Amino acid sequence: MRIARLHAQIAGVCLFLALATPVLVQGQDEEPGPPDAAERQARARTLPRIQPSDKKFDPHDLAGIWTRSSSPRGFTGGGTCADCGDRGYGKNVPPMTPEGKKMFDTNKPSYGRTLGSADAAAHPDEDIGRRRAVSPANGTDPYQYCNPMGITRALIFPHPIEFFVLPDRIIQHFSWGEGIRTIWTDGRKLIDDPDQPRWWGYSVGHWEGDTFIVESNGHDERTWIDHFGYPHSDRMHLEERYKRTNYNILELNWTITDPKVYTKPWVGDTKRFHLIQTKDITTVDGWAGMMEDPCAPADEVDQFDKRIRDLTGTKPN
Amino acid sequence: MKVRFPRLPLMLIGSLLFVSVSMFAHHGTFVSYDTKHPVTLNGVVAEYHFTNPHTQLYFDVTDDKGNVTRWAAEGPAPEIWVEAGWGKKRTEATLAPGTKITITLSPARNGKPVGAAAKIFLANGEQVGPAGAGEPPNQ
Asked: Do A73 and B83 touch (CB under 8 A)?
């Protein structure tokens, strides 16, 4: 009787472990590298996706902390939740203009398959942008020196993003790099030529039914569209369409129009975010929720870049 | 005899089991480090920095002839440690200068004594940091 009760309790715990933790695991993280990364991705695809919730929700309520991380809480060091989309803006890259190609070639990313590797050659179906990674010491990624990521890249990065809804604007606070992006919701229209380029652009938003549509321009062209180094000009127009499809799920569809760089509009891949609560992200001293996570040159450049990253270049520095 | 299974530690274990192993997605780690051929070294901590973008461990490895090599290893970002209960004070105290460690890392492809840390153990066998995170993705 006692043994039967113990077995029942053990079974209960196993069931609890299986069900209690919302399981969000790495699914479509397209970080190739060595050939056996494919095995890792195949394994990840067999794991469960975001668990929708049956809680009631207001589709016009976007406030809260949203993340594309693969952990039930906020952080995984870069892993993205299953069915949330990968780390690139979009796979169907339109042809570039001659000027766009020049900008593309100038950018030397450190993400994706290694430039010139057998791994890169084995995936000719993938755009070359995803198959030209160099060591960061030899790259030109602006974020390595703590320059702001810009909108698309910051939305892609799988760390928490807190949406603050104010009467006349929505503010997106990006945890990684402490970016702040304003979306004006006071009814103003986007002006064609803002006075200055902004790292975080000039954005206006409005509702159409249950879809929140954001348009932005005035983007500083030094940001990259994503970490694969796709460029954009200061004339880029970005349209984002947000839809809260479940209590737990926010879906983003987006399109870039930038005739200076791309000959056609670039429809990005759908991205999904899951909702986490402040109390789900914990530290050891009572701080909860969004963590302080700046890119501080004193740490990033003076310590990490100089003492570790720059030593790993693959050609003489 | 009533058997009780404390719920919170088990939930933590369950969560940790699903922690992604792709912390190396940052900073082109696949490009810089040979993640297919990790090495294990015995060393002594010289410095440790619990800072962004990656925690940094500097340690000395002495070979059979008494030559000392200063190694540098990058690890997961602080918030990942903190989320797993390893705050700055605890981690810095655990990896104080002079501490003996055994570390498995993916070495730099260019042969320099730099690596991406996967596991760190103390002399008493205790693992330092969140178990499961930081494993080279191909293991």
From this structure: yes
Whole-angstrom Cα distance, residue A166 to residue A300? 33
Query: What does R_g of chain B's alpha carbons equal in angstroms?
Result: 16
* Residues of B in Cβ contact (< 8 Å) with A135: 28, 31-32, 109-110
Is A283 in contact with A292 (CB distance < 8 Å)? no
B116/B133 Cα distance (integer angstroms): 12
Nearest to A31 among B11, B30, B36 (CB): B30
Pair A249, A68: CB distance under 8 Å: no
* Partner A contacted by B56 (CB < 8 A): yes
What CA–CA distances, in Å, run from A277 to A68, A100, A173, A289, A290?
Answer: 14, 41, 15, 7, 10
With an 8 Å Cβ cutoff, is A296 touching chain B?
Answer: yes
Report whether CATH 2.40.50.140 matches the domain B20-122.
yes
The ipTM estimated for the assembled molecules is 0.78
Q: Record the tokens describing residue A8, joined without a space.
A: 């029942």
This prediction has a pTM of: 0.82
Task: For chain A, say whether B18 makes contact (Cβ under 8 Å).
Answer: yes
Paired tokens of A205 = 């938003």
From chain A, the residues in CB contact with B81 under 8 A are: none
Residue A7 lies in a domain: no
pLDDT score of B15: 43
Closest chain B CA to residue A281: B83
- pLDDT score, position A280: 84
A165 touches chain B (CB under 8 A): no
Q: What share of chain A is helix, strand, coil (3-state, %, to 5)?
A: 25, 25, 55
**Is B47 strand, coil or helix?**
strand
CA distances from A147 to A217, A220, A264, B72 (A): 19, 11, 28, 25
Structural domain count, chain A: 1
CB contact under 8 A, A17 and B10: yes
Range of the domain at A273: 22-312
The answer to whether residue A317 sits within a structural domain is: no
**Res A160 pLDDT > 50:** yes
Mean pLDDT, rounded, for A248-260? 98
Q: Are the CB atoms for A203 and A154 separated by under 8 Å?
A: no
Cβ neighbours of A77 in B, within 8 Å: 20, 22-26, 76-77, 80, 133-134
What are the residue ranges spanned by the domains of chain B?
20-122
